[in-house]
Write a structure and sequence with these properties.
FAD/NAD(P)-binding domain, about 290 residues, 2 domains, 9 helices, alpha/beta, six-stranded mixed β-sheet
């Protein structure tokens, strides 16, 4: 059956990207339907650290300066993202928690410090505010860091966002601007017809069809439902948290893909006894590495 509605855009996926896209389309006067198979923010968007990291990642610079320069071509997007996050609460009319108190990329060896300096020069050439700090400057700015950290690249616009509330807030903002938001609504078929997309949707009320001039797939790993392509697994981070008083107030990025439990204590300058207590609470043994399987 068809519900007779036509939209400028259909956005598939109710995570942060999907909700933000639907909000911006509706805000700018477009008609948009946001379809989420489960609940808004149920998956990856609501279950990550919320880091606002605008410097080049270590993996972008560890393979040489040419690779770093190539990666830096996306820096205008980094700068635009930093501006958008800063303006998001006021623009959306939602109380989204965004704290841009600065981020530090840490170095523990002279070689790492030299690479950070080269990275920072590339970033500054694109307009990103990055400052190299020596040990003395770090002691003033971040006294909680271990003395094993000898230098760092500091970017004042980095920080954190509350991932539990950001996407739902943007979904509400989209709805206020006129967007249709449907949860527990799955896309079961799409076909191109007369210059548009005819899309079949299924939810608790049954099966329906809508027409959209454009389709934005913001479904994360569920994109495999729509496309067939090769996926190369890459371990990014495994996080486990426990209740603790605020310790740093800034985003910290250490070196390397794997960080063992003892190294966390070193980078954050934690007292050994305090770390042992925290490690016991989260069932980690000091010095034991966590695997990508968690």
């Amino acid at each position: 059956m068809s519900d007779g509605r036509r939209f400028d855009a259909l956005v598939i996926g109710g995570g942060l990207l999907g909700c933000a896209t639907a909000w911006m389309i509706a805000r700018d006067g477009g008609s948009v339907l946001l379809a989420e198979r489960d609940q808004v923010n149920q998956h990856a968007s609501g279950q990550n650290a919320g880091s606002l990291h605008f410097q080049l990642e270590y993996r972008m610079v560890e393979h040489g300066l040419e690779a770093a320069r190539k990666a830096a071509e996306a820096m205008p997007l980094h700068l635009d993202a930093a501006r958008l996050w800063a303006e998001l609460p006021a623009e959306s009319g939602e109380d989204i928690e965004v704290k841009q108190t600065g981020g530090l990329m840490l170095a523990e060896t002279p070689a790492q410090a030299a690479l950070l300096e080269q990275k920072s020069e590339i970033e500054r050439s694109w307009g990103l505010d990055v400052e190299m700090l020596d040990r003395a400057a770090l002691a003033r700015l971040a006294p909680y860091l271990s003395e094993s950290v000898i230098a760092a690249a500091f970017c004042p616009i980095e920080g954190k966002a509350d991932t539990r509330t950001a996407a739902p807030a943007l979904a509400r903002a989209a709805a206020r601007e006129g967007a249709s938001v449907r949860t527990r609504c799955e896309v079961v078929a799409m076909r191109r017809e007369a210059g548009a997309w005819r899309v079949t949707l299924a939810d608790a009320e049954g099966v329906s069809e809508i027409v959209a001039d454009a389709v934005v797939i913001a479904a994360g790993v569920a994109i495999l439902t729509f496309l067939l392509f090769y996926v190369v697994p890459r371990f990014a981070a495994v996080l486990q948290s426990a209740p603790h008083l605020p310790a740093t107030g800034r985003l910290l990025v250490g070196w390397g893909a794997l960080v063992d439990a003892h190294r966390v204590a070193l980078l954050a300058g934690l007292d050994t006894a305090v770390f042992a207590e925290v490690a016991a609470e989260i069932r980690l043994t000091p010095g034991a590495r966590r695997s990508s399987s968690g």
